[in-house]
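Our consortium's second objective concerns turning raw sequence data into structural hypotheses that experimental partners can test. To show how far this objective has progressed, the report includes one record in full. It was chosen at random from the queue rather than selected for favorable results. The single chain below, 279 residues long, was entered without modification.
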Amino acid sequence: MSLISKGHIACQGCAALSTANLILNELGPRTVAVIPACCLSVCNGPYPSAAFKIPVVNCAFETAAITAAGIRAGLDRKKEEANVVVLAGDGGTYDIGLGALSGAAERNDNILYVCYDNEAYMNTGIQRSSATPYGAHTMTTPKEGYKREHKKDIIGILKAHDVPYIATATITKPGDFKKKVRKAKDMKGFRFILAFTPCPTGWKFDPKYSIKMARLAVNSGLFPLREIVWGEETVKKIKTEDSKAVFKEYIKLQGRFKHLSDEEVNNFYRAYKNFDWKF
């Protein structure tokens, strides 16, 4: 049975809600979710209604990791067995919450932190974050001033903290995603999952393509499926006949990249292919 009811108010085609649903169903009902200011905090529903069928603690943008650590400490003191999971967007992870995230990772706090990455501050009107990719048009990087910087390497940052578990996942590969959640659930210490979550509203594509967008990102190599256990990394191999063609299809389906010329799209492709890390 799903731990998220039908009464949510997510946008049509919201991959973030599908991601949260998959995660919570794997963790089970004995779970406390910590959600900072983000799309999911709104999707859960306005007070006094709530779509999530588990305890949810809403907190300030910058405090998700430390709030979860405090809840974990309280549960341990009471000898209560329960999962503590953070469900945070990229704004509250890559940017505003990075300090608390780093602190929790350095202390190896016993929490699971999931960042659903929709690549901008979507809940407040689609503003640029450090997770927004090169070339994207947002409200704060308009078409003539589109984002020239590439995504922050959040996986590399957390890998430098030497934590027990780091993984990337997306709903287009649910078997892989569930396996990683179960593995993280069975481990102790700080665990982090970066979930790629296409956003129809912010990326400007038809909601029916949410799953397709995630699949194109994986198959193009733009979002590799990685797993890092105590520093040892494995990457899931994806067979694709022409990754460049897949990449171009991914770009062309999104309104946030419509202003890019063919030459700029080619530059985008060459740039990320030359990085040691991927987005």
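The partners drew two points from this record. The mean pLDDT is 93. The chain is about 35% helix and 15% strand. Both points have been shared with the crystallography group to help prioritize constructs.
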